[in-house]
Amino acid sequence: MPKSYAGVGDPDVDFYQMLHLERHSRLEQIEEALQAAQRWWNGQQANPKYRHQARDALARLREAREVLFDPIRRQSYDRQRQSTRQNWRKMRWLPVSELIDVLLKEQTCSHAQEELLVNFARRRNLTEEEIRILLNEEFLRRDIEREPEPEPRPTRSVWHIFGYRSVIAFLSIAFLGILVLALYGSASPAILLLVPMLNDIRLLVRGLYLQAIPEENQPSVNGWDWLVGIAVLGGASVTALVTMQNDPMLPLGIGVATLIWLSWLALVLLWQNPPPLKPSPNEHL
After folding, report:
1. Which positions ≥6 away from 14 have C-beta within 8 Å?
2. Is the pTM of this model over 0.85?
């Protein structure tokens, strides 16, 4: 898309902006931009929208050529332009400076207060770089200390929450099954199945406790713990089912043992493959 040089007709737009140039542009780039702008305005003299501005725009292009091709005049123009921008920036920053007086009476700035100042400054049409520079200067001048940003608080993922809830549900149903077995004359198998269930409950409580510990401080998973769990789970469940061979409650015993095994396997997956911790979304509001 060809560039538009309609900004040449606006006296409030500086020479660099109206020619789409940077302040450090070379003379060759300036010459090309001036020729392109002149061609553009020559073509707009028949356009009713720009016809009344064409004469002033072409005169301004001649002025831009005289200033930008003269090293001394260009240097003076750049200094004046920089001074104007600084004054305009200070005028836009003045309400932010007054807000700092109101907010930071105790010479300390929290993360929430700093975000409020930055958001307020953005509405003054200041760039991010200008905001950070001016804010740092303001804090240094007033000897204001920033409070350290709070570290993101780790939260459990949906996968962890669902996994532990599933284990709790399996163990709850298994406990009801053990109660039914005990009430209907299968006390010995019920006691045998209760032993691995208590081991699962111990692992569940330990896993929930470890969720509150930072990841770098969590102890490594003990392989011996899993070996003991397999031995207890396998020995007790197999023994209980063998003793129930001729018992009409055998299907219930198989269901309870299956739930206990599923709970143990879910705990293994939760411990061996923990998902990465993610920060709380409300931490930096």
Report:
1. 81
2. no
